[in-house]
Structures are given as structure tokens and as C-alpha cells.
Automatic annotation (TrEMBL), chain A:
It comes from Kibdelosporangium persicum. It catalyses: ATP + protein L-histidine = ADP + protein N-phospho-L-histidine. SMART domains: HATPase_c. This is histidine kinase. GO terms for molecular function: kinase activity. The chain crosses the membrane at residues 12-41, 115-139, 145-163, 205-227, 303-332, 368-389. Keywords: ATP-binding, Kinase, Membrane, Nucleotide-binding, Phosphoprotein, Transferase, Transmembrane, Transmembrane helix, Two-component regulatory system.
From TrEMBL, chain B:
Keywords: DNA-binding, Phosphoprotein, Transcription, Transcription regulation. It comes from Kibdelosporangium persicum. Residues 2-122 form the Response regulatory domain. The lineage of its organism: Bacteria, Bacillati, Actinomycetota, Actinomycetes, Pseudonocardiales. Residues 144-214 form the HTH luxR-type domain. InterPro entries: CheY-like_superfamily, NreC/VraR/RcsB-like_REC, Sig_transdc_resp-reg_receiver, Tscrpt_reg_LuxR_C, WalR-like. It comes from the Bacteria. The modification 4-aspartylphosphate is found at residue 52. SUPFAM superfamilies: CheY-like (SSF52172). CDD domains: LuxR_C_like (cd06170), REC_NarL-like (cd17535). This is Response regulator transcription factor.
């Protein structure tokens, strides 16, 4: 009994001593970490670990070690570079450092350790350290009073040790809470928005400089290249992207395309109007200048740059003042003014700070309303800041986005390009058909006709020879039919005409040497031209998968989603497909572009390859065809 | 034997009628559109129907659909489908009911009148006449599958002919070997494909086609 109490007393005092060491050590580690050296965070862990072990041995309360495992050395990618997020490094060193930073800083156990260590002197002094504290206090009152105090401390020692152990265990064991609470996440998210609002105003001030840049480049002082480059346009394009990323309001680039560089005449001179020049620079400058002058965006840009500081100041100031003034000005200082005035004897704040000066009537209200009003203002600021940021996005779009006419001009450009590609492709196709007919079926029929005319002459004199020739002619007609059939397949596959895209792709899959799984969900038929384009695109992709990708299994998924026909072809080949290196993908892209369709390709080296074709189109006639099968 | 013929090209329809009547068939109806074909099949109950896949008014697979519909109503109704092109997809649909009495030929085969008439007779008798092109496509898309790859070239040849619906005697005649030799080959093929052998030609053909369609899956 007595031994138990004595043991608990000694053990408690040991823990009390350790807690004092832990507090000093933690404070040191935190101070050092401010200089960017995190080694202290790792080294200090010996002490909480020791406390975990001691508590487990002395009280039987197991406290598992909560730390994340230490990261291994960075591994290089296939090409020998080291990757961190979207950044590549030649050497592993920086990544190893960043891994360590993240390992130590993101681990909640690091911060819980610190909370434990920094509060431990107080918590342990109130529990396990209490007997020592009582003895010292008693001694100070009267040397003899120390004895009863020691007796009280010894009596309470086991209970105090248990209390302290539970407190220690609660902080030092692994937490089940994975992240911050949703309220905290919301506040941090809004604080982020608030920062963006403030930054928006800062960026708008930088923008003012670009009014001058625009004027200088337009005036031609910096030569023709500056006019061509337009650094302020580069700046604004970056702003467009950044505003889009921050506010979610997408702002398209509104500029008219620059004229192509002038081409020399056969004699090496450059012609502009009726003038001939030796070098293209002046013509280039003139043309660029004309385009810039014609472009409405050239004039809308500076207008935006001038007005944006005012607008963003107006938009940013309301939420920022509400949050900063409300939370820090009224709530936070009020919270701290109480303990400070308790110790220092004077009040650092007056109720209703500046507002009270403006509206003396406020001072008549009870004082506790000050922090409440501050907090309410801060919450109101957090609530409106997102709307203010979005409003800035819309305002920017209004001046920075393409005007209706610029949009139309861009569309016309796009259409002109795709139309010329479409007509080129069509012409090439017609040429191919003509050549095939000319060299194939047509030639065979000429031969057949010749054969038959010989037969006509021979039939009476030499019936045997005539029979042979007729057999020849029949053979030639059969061959011509085979050729024609292949030609028809190349123009428009019969199954496509008879059954539509779904069954045509199924037929394609059946004829393919690979194992092709087909899933179709098309509640109707697609426009014939789109159908054919997508069919040939899928056919080409399947050919590629077999030829270049060395695939064995392919899955084709056809469906109509959000007004678009989407075909996904995925194979298990070795990947590494690149539209830039020929392989027919460019051709597919061009042909689909006629229908505003797009091809997206993901094909990492080593596979798998996924090709997605998307073509906006409508479905006609509700003939259901939903099924899945394999070939 | 009573025949219903559906073909939209006048010349071909006339030629086929002449050829069939010269070979002793009785062409009870020679129609040119899908609805007419459906009506003729319903009313006349022929011994065999010869049908073009693509027929007016839609010029899609009207004929094929009419034939499939008629076979659903009268299971095993002999149908010979003609087309300018052959597709495995259509062959599967025609064979799906497993009832036999099905033919699927390219229109080119009409040029060889003896073989064509032979195919019509075979289908009318409940047999099968698959175009060599369908069979070679079936075999090509199955080429990489295990048991088929084990067949010797000769066995593949016999399998192709057998799958197109030919009897042992016909195969022997075409390959210039004895019927006994063909019998031995077919026994080997069935053993290698792990199929139950059968003496009945029709059943044997259907088993082979079902096998090829299955391994295609």
C-alpha cells in the first residue's frame, strides 16, 4: 500500500520532470523550424516516445506510436527524371527535402506532440507535479507545513498519475480524425477567396502599367516586333486564364488573328499595294498595325486596365473590411483586452472603436455587443466574398471577353479552315474512287467486252475455244464484282447503310482479328455523314490498335451523351501513340473537325491506350438499340 | 417445289425465275418489296423462300427482317438469303435459332447456276448453304483461338467446305479424294474441336457453325 503510493509519487515526479524538458525542447524546435530547419521536429520525438513507453509500463495504458512512416528515397521515372507533382527534377535531392517537409509538417501527430509538450508543464504541475508543488507551497508558508502537504500529495499520487496518463494518452495516440472539420475547411476556403480578392486588386494595379505599355507598342516606338508581340496582350491573356481559374468564369481570347507574314514575289521583292519593298518588315508592321487598329479588343483592353482598379477595389473592400475589421478589430482585440487589462490594469480597446466615434449613440449599447457584432460582420464578409469574386469574373468577361462580332469572326475563321479541310478530303476521296474504278472494274469490263466480241466471231467456227473464252469472261465478271464490293465498302459500308452505326461497329468487331467488346447505347440513328465519319474513325483506331499497339483485347463503347455522340476505344496494347507521328490519328482529327468533333488520346508508354471521339449531333427516330456483345 | 422469290432488280428477278423454273421449281410469287414479301410468305406457305437482303421501300435490311420474322412464325421455314455483301453479323442472326434450313449467299453465286440450284435444294431439304466468304471470315476472326490453330491445312479446308453446308460426298468430289478420307478428316476435326460427332450432315453443319460463332465470342 505504502510502496504503491511511493512508486506512484516517484513515477509522477519523473513524468513531471520529463514534461518540463519536453516543453523546452518543443519551444526550441519550433523556433528553429522558423528558420526552415525541420530536423528538430524529428529529433524531439524521442521524448514523447519515451513518455508513451513509460506510461504503458507504469499504468498499463497502451499509447500506440502515431507517426507516419518515413518516406523512402525518391524513385526516378522511366526517363531518369524525378517527378514532384507536375514538376520534373534532374536530381532526387530537392524532392527528398520536400518529402521530408511534407512528412513532418502534414503529420497531425507532429502538431499534437507540440500541443502536448507546450501544455505539459501546466497540466503536469496540476496533476503528477502537484505533490511537489504542494510541498514547495507549504514550505513557503511555513517549513513545517511542508510535511502534511507531502502526505496529502503522496496519498493522491496514484490517482494523479492515472489522470495525467489519460490526458497524455488522449493527445499522444494516433488521432482518428483524418482532416480538419468541415467548418474549419469552410472558413479556410473563404479566407482563400478573400486573399484572392485582395490579390485581384493588387494585380489590377499592376495592370495600370500596361496601359502605358500598350500605348508605346502601338505607337511603333519599339519597332514592328513589339507591335506583333503585344506584351500587354500576353499579360492580359495570363489574367484571363487566372481569372477563369479563380472565379470559374471562362474568358475566351478575343483577338483577331494576325495576318500571315508577307510572301516574297518571284524577284525577291515584297509587294504591298502598288509599292515594292526589299524587306518584309515594313509591310509586316503596317499589316499588324492595321489589324490591331481594326480589332475592338485593342481598345477594350486599355479601358479594362484603367477601370479594373476601381471596380476590384469596390468589390474587394467590402468583404475584406468586414472580415478584418469585424474579426480582428472588434472580436479578437476584445477577447484579448480582458486578460491584458486584468494583468496590466488598463484597457487597450474601447467598445465600438472607430464606429463609436462616428455614431456616439452606439456607445449606449451594452459592451458585450461589440464582439458579437464583430463576429457577425466577419461571417457576413466570408459569406459575400465568393459572390464578389464571381462578380469580378463577370465584369472582366464583359470587357476582356470576345464581343459578339469577334466571336463570329473567330467562328468564321474556324469554319473556313475546317471547310477547306473537308473539301480537300472529299476531293481526295473522289480521286481515289475514280482511280479504283478506272484501273479495276472499268478495265475488267473492257476485257470482258473484248472477250465476248471474240466469242461472237468464234462461236460457229470453234465452239470449244468460244466456251473457254466465255468461262474466262465469267471469271472476269466475278473478279470485277469482288473489286466493286470492296470499293463500295470503302465508300459506305453496306451494314452502316442498312443497320446504322451500332450494328456496323458490331460487324466491324466480328471481322476483326482482335477480341473486340462492343457496347452500344444509341436510342436512335445518327446523321448519315456523322455516322460514316465516326465509323471510319473507329475502324482506323482498331487498325492502329492491332498494327502499332500490339493489342489483344479492345473495347468499344458507343453512346449519346449531352447532345454528343461519344465513342471510346480502349485497348490493352503497349501505348505510346502520338498523333504528331502520323499513324492516321491526325487524319481522323481532321475529318472529325468538319463536324466540330474532337479526338482525345491517352496513351502512356506501356499502355493502355484510350481514344475518345466526340461529335456533337442529334439522334433521329427512336429505334432502340441497346446491347453489348463481344467478337 | 414451291418457291417465293423477293428481289427488287427486275433483270435479276426475271433471270432467277427463268433459272428456277428451268430447274424444275415452281415460282409461286416473284415480288419486289418488303411488304409484298411478308404477305407472300404468309399467304402462300412456300417450300423455300429466296430473299434479297435489301428491298424497297426502306432499302435497308427489309428482306432479312421479313425472313427472320417469317421464321419466327414458322420455325425452320427454309430461307435462302441473297446479298451483294455478306456479313458475319447477319449470318449469326440467321443461324441463331439453330433450326437449320438456312442459306446465305453472295449474289455472285447465281452466276454458277449448278451450284446455286444445288444450294437452293439443300436449303429446301433443311440443310445449310453458307457463302464461302462468310466461312472464311468466321475462320479468320477465329484464327487465333486455340483449337482452330491446331488443325492441319487439309483439315481447315475440309472444315471450310463442311461449314458451308456441303455433304461428305460433295467435299470429296471438290477435293478429289475418297469419301472415306473426308470422313477421317471430319472425325479428326470434331475430336480436335471437342464436338460430338454426328452422321447427319445438317446437324453436323449446325454444330460447326455454332462452334465458330461461339468461339468468336
Amino acid at each position: 500500500m505504502l510502496r504503491e503510493h511511493a512508486l506512484a509519487l516517484v513515477r509522477g515526479l519523473a513524468l513531471f520532470g520529463l514534461s518540463l524538458v519536453a516543453a523546452v525542447q518543443s519551444a526550441l524546435a519550433i523556433v528553429v523550424s522558423c528558420a526552415g530547419v525541420l530536423a528538430g521536429f524529428k529529433r524531439e520525438r524521442w521524448l514523447p516516445n519515451l513518455v508513451r513507453r513509460l506510461v504503458a509500463r507504469w499504468t498499463g495504458l497502451e499509447i500506440p506510436v502515431p507517426y507516419w512512416p518515413e518516406p523512402g528515397p525518391p524513385r526516378p521515372e522511366r526517363d531518369g527524371w524525378y517527378r514532384w507533382g507536375n514538376q520534373l527534377y534532374r536530381k532526387p535531392g530537392p524532392i527528398a527535402r520536400m518529402q521530408r517537409f511534407r512528412w513532418l509538417l502534414k503529420d497531425p501527430a507532429t502538431h499534437r506532440d507540440h500541443i502536448w509538450a507546450l501544455t505539459a508543464p501546466v497540466t503536469s504541475a496540476l496533476t503528477v507535479g502537484l505533490p511537489a508543488v504542494l510541498v514547495v507551497a507549504g514550505f513557503l508558508v511555513h517549513p513545517l507545513a511542508a510535511l502534511p502537504m507531502a502526505a496529502v500529495g503522496g496519498a493522491a499520487a496514484p490517482a494523479l498519475l492515472r489522470i495525467y496518463s489519460h490526458w497524455t494518452g488522449a493527445l499522444l495516440r494516433p488521432t482518428t480524425r483524418t482532416g480538419r472539420t468541415s467548418l474549419w475547411a469552410w472558413v479556410m476556403g473563404r479566407a482563400n477567396v478573400l486573399l484572392k480578392l485582395a490579390a485581384t486588386f493588387g494585380l489590377s494595379l499592376i495592370g495600370v502599367v500596361h496601359v502605358g505599355v500598350t500605348a508605346v507598342t502601338l505607337s511603333g516606338f519599339l519597332g514592328p516586333f513589339a507591335a506583333q508581340r503585344q506584351p500587354s496582350r500576353t499579360f492580359l491573356n495570363r489574367r484571363r486564364r487566372q481569372i477563369g481559374a479563380w472565379t470559374g468564369v471562362r474568358i475566351d481570347v478575343p483577338y483577331l488573328p494576325m495576318p500571315p507574314p508577307p510572301a516574297p514575289r518571284p524577284d525577291g521583292k515584297y509587294q504591298h499595294g502598288r509599292m515594292l519593298y526589299d524587306s518584309p518588315h515594313l509591310i509586316r508592321y503596317t499589316q499588324t498595325f492595321t489589324t490591331l487598329m481594326k480589332d475592338k479588343a485593342t481598345w477594350r483592353d486599355p479601358l479594362y486596365l484603367i477601370l479594373d482598379p476601381l471596380v476590384s477595389l469596390f468589390l474587394a473592400i467590402v468583404p475584406v473590411v468586414l472580415v478584418v475589421g469585424g474579426f480582428f478589430g472588434y472580436f479578437w482585440t476584445w477577447m484579448w483586452s480582458r486578460p491584458i487589462s486584468f494583468f496590466a490594469g488598463f484597457d487597450i480597446t474601447h467598445d465600438w472603436g472607430y464606429l463609436g466615434d462616428l455614431f456616439p449613440a452606439l456607445r449606449a449599447l451594452p459592451g458585450w455587443l461589440t464582439p458579437v457584432a464583430g463576429l457577425a460582420a466577419a461571417i457576413a464578409g466570408l459569406l459575400v466574398c465568393q459572390a464578389c469574386l464571381t462578380a469580378h469574373g463577370h465584369w472582366s468577361k464583359w470587357l476582356l471577353g470576345p464581343t459578339r462580332s469577334a466571336q463570329l469572326a473567330q467562328q468564321v475563321d474556324h469554319l473556313r479552315e475546317t471547310r477547306s479541310e473537308a473539301t480537300d478530303a472529299q476531293a481526295a476521296e473522289l480521286r481515289r474512287i475514280e482511280r479504283d474504278l478506272h484501273d479495276g472494274a472499268q478495265a475488267r469490263w473492257v476485257a470482258m467486252g473484248l472477250n465476248l466480241s471474240v466469242v461472237e466471231r468464234l462461236i460457229d467456227q470453234d465452239p470449244e475455244a468460244a466456251k473457254k473464252l466465255v468461262a474466262n469472261a465469267r471469271g472476269a465478271s466475278a473478279e470485277a464484282l469482288v473489286e466493286l464490293r470492296q470499293l463500295v465498302r470503302g465508300i459506305l459500308p453496306p451494314v452502316l447503310a442498312e443497320r446504322g452505326l451500332g450494328d456496323a461497329v458490331r460487324a466491324l468487331a466480328l471481322d476483326n482479328a482482335l477480341t473486340v467488346h462492343v457496347a452500344v447505347d444509341l436510342p436512335g440513328r445518327v446523321d448519315a455523314p456523322v455516322e460514316a465519319a465516326v465509323y471510319f474513325a473507329i475502324s482506323e483506331v482498331l487498325t492502329n490498335a492491332a498494327k502499332h499497339g500490339q493489342a489483344e483485347q479492345v473495347s468499344v463503347d458507343l453512346r449519346h451523351v449531352d447532345g454528343k455522340l461519344r465513342a471510346t476505344v480502349a485497348d490493352d496494347g503497349r501505348g505510346g501513340a502520338d498523333p504528331a507521328q502520323g499513324s492516321g490519328l491526325r487524319g481522323i482529327q481532321r475529318r472529325l473537325a468538319t463536324f466540330d468533333g474532337v479526338l482525345t488520346l491517352t496513351s502512356p508508354s506501356g499502355g493502355p491506350t484510350t481514344v475518345t471521339l466526340e461529335v456533337p449531333c442529334a439522334l433521329s427516330s427512336p429505334r432502340t438499340s441497346t446491347s453489348s456483345e463481344t467478337a | 417445289m414451291r418457291v417465293v422469290l423477293a428481289e427488287d432488280l427486275y433483270l435479276l428477278r426475271d433471270g432467277l425465275t427463268l433459272l428456277l423454273e428451268a430447274s424444275g421449281f415452281d415460282v409461286v410469287a416473284a415480288v419486289s418489296t418488303g411488304p409484298e414479301l411478308v404477305k407472300a410468305l404468309d399467304d402462300l406457305n412456300p417450300d423455300v423462300a429466296i430473299v434479297d437482303v435489301r428491298l424497297p421501300p426502306t432499302f435497308t435490311d427489309e428482306g432479312l427482317q421479313a425472313a427472320l420474322q417469317a421464321r419466327r412464325k414458322v420455325p425452320g421455314l427454309p430461307v435462302l438469303v441473297l446479298s451483294q455483301h455478306v456479313e458475319q453479323l447477319y449470318a449469326r442472326e440467321l443461324l441463331a435459332d439453330g433450326a437449320g434450313a438456312i442459306g446465305y449467299l453472295l449474289k455472285d453465286r447465281v452466276l454458277n447456276s449448278d451450284q446455286f440450284i444445288d444450294a437452293v435444294r439443300r436449303v429446301a431439304d433443311g440443310g445449310t448453304a453458307m457463302d464461302p466468304e462468310v466461312i472464311s471470315k468466321l475462320l479468320a476472326s477465329n484464327a487465333r483461338h486455340e483449337p482452330l490453330a491446331e488443325l492441319s491445312p487439309r483439315e481447315r479446308e475440309v472444315l471450310e467446305l463442311m461449314a458451308s453446308g456441303k455433304s461428305n460426298a460433295a467435299i470429296a468430289a471438290q477435293l478429289f479424294v475418297s469419301e472415306g478420307a473426308v470422313g477421317k478428316h471430319t472425325a479428326n476435326i470434331f475430336a480436335k474441336l471437342r464436338l460430338v460427332p454426328s452422321d447427319d450432315t445438317n446437324r453436323r453443319v449446325l454444330a460447326v457453325l455454332a462452334y465458330l460463332n461461339r468461339t468468336g465470342a
